[in-house]
Write a structure and sequence with these properties.
The complex is a heterodimer of chains A (about 260) and B (about 110). By secondary structure, chain A is an alpha/beta fold. Chain A contains 8 helices and 10 strands. The chains are: A alpha/beta (about 260), B alpha+beta (about 110). Chains A and B meet through strand 3, helix 1, helix 6 and helix 7 of A and helix 1, strand 1 and strand 6 of B.
Chain lengths: ~260, ~110
């Protein structure tokens, strides 16, 4: 039960706006409506029969993702889905990226976390529009959450939309949000074999950013080996090495990102 | 635990189809799951039985056909079975391989009465 409006939210996701305690949108049932009430029909079906189906299990999510994608394309919005383990530095990377982009292109952000509006508050400090999706017990954002969030955002034409997914290297890989590209972030405090251990995510991504390179002298992390592992899984990956903390290497990433914004 | 979302998607899709077909009961569901789809079949079964409770799909048998992934070498064009997202081409040794199949996740048919 939602304690503000009394509606039943169950485990569904909720969208919050930092600094506006009265604003919230229930994503609903997260696109997973149940069908408990089935009317019995008078016909007797004594024999079982097979009905050919041929439907993608994630059809509903994928159709909605394509609607989101069409909207982004029509408005010339470059939507990027940022993914990583918890703590790899997605929010820190956005904090360094957004100020370097927003004078040339409007930037909006959707933050995904199970709980709290902490990340959205960090982004709000940069004076860009931001909404927080709290997935509750959910381990990933889905296309419906993005659809609902975008409806509340009034995105600018020719802009950048950064979607920071729930910190998780497994589940978000399967759920298309309608983004133009997935950017996977790993940090040098993780293992350099991470691309091999979580290949689905690295396979789905277009870009891989190795973060926290300022810590390389202190940790047994082989950046070249990590890149090689990532390229084994996905040889199409664009690769960047940077430190969001010291900003070393951030210029190369920004230059590339700006070239993608110009292409649109 | 994305298998829970996936199980919910299966139950929703099958219940809707069963409703269209005026079914009383769903006895079986035939799924096709690629070995590199990112779905753990045992987790999916576990979630499915929980999610299917009190729906027309409750108790349905989940028959899963696994699809062996097929890769293609982007250097020499050879096609070969892959077990992981990365594989060395067994002809030229390149790691520049692309996955042609093995990420399927679809409902093929349902058995109803």
């Amino acid at each position: 039960m939602c304690d503000t409006c009394g509606c039943s939210s169950g485990d569904g996701a909720v969208i919050y706006k930092p600094g506006d305690a009265s604003f919230h949108v229930h994503v609903g049932d997260g696109g997973h409506g149940h069908h408990h009430d089935h009317v019995s029909h008078a016909h007797e079906h004594a024999h079982s029969r097979q009905v050919v189906f041929e439907q993608d299990v994630l059809l509903r999510n994928n159709l909605l993702a394509e609607r989101n994608r069409g909207y982004f394309e029509a408005r010339n919005v470059l939507a990027i889905n940022f993914l990583s383990s918890p703590g790899s530095g997605k929010t820190s990377l956005l904090e360094k990226t957004i100020p370097l982009i927003k004078d040339d292109h409007p930037v909006s952000v959707i933050e995904g976390d199970q709980q709290t509006t902490r990340d959205a508050e960090r982004i709000q400090a940069l004076n860009v529009p931001v909404l927080q999706v709290n997935t509750g017990t959910g381990c990933h954002l889905d296309a419906l959450m993005i659809n609902k969030a975008v409806r509340e955002m009034n995105l600018a034409d020719n802009s950048l939309l950064c979607i920071e997914n729930v910190g998780n290297l497994v589940c978000p890989a399967l759920f298309d949000l309608g983004e133009a590209m997935k950017v996977v972030v790993i940090s040098v405090t993780e293992g350099d074999d991470k691309p091999l251990k979580y290949p689905t995510m690295f396979h789905e991504a277009e870009v891989c950013i190795l973060n926290k390179t300022d810590l390389l002298p202190y940790v047994p992390f082989d950046a070249a080996k990590c890149r090689q592992n990532a390229m084994m899984v996905n040889h199409h990956l664009e690769w960047f090495e940077l430190s969001a903390a010291t900003e070393e290497g951030v210029d190369v990433w920004i230059k590339w990102l700006k070239s993608k914004l110009k292409e649109d | 635990m994305h298998e829970m979302s996936i199980a919910m998607s299966i139950v929703d899709a099958v219940a809707a189809k069963a409703g269209e077909e005026h079914a009383q009961k769903v006895n079986g569901i035939e799924l096709e799951v690629g070995k590199l789809s990112g779905v753990e079949i045992e987790s999916l079964r576990f979630c499915f039985s929980a999610v299917a409770k009190n729906t027309i799909v409750e108790g349905a048998d989940l028959a899963v056909r696994e699809v062996q992934p097929l890769g293609e070498c982007s250097e020499c064009g050879r096609r070969f079975p892959m077990s992981f997202h990365y594989a060395k081409c067994d002809s030229c040794g390149s790691f520049k391989t692309d996955l042609l199949s093995g990420r399927e996740l679809s409902i093929k048919s349902i058995t109803i009465e």
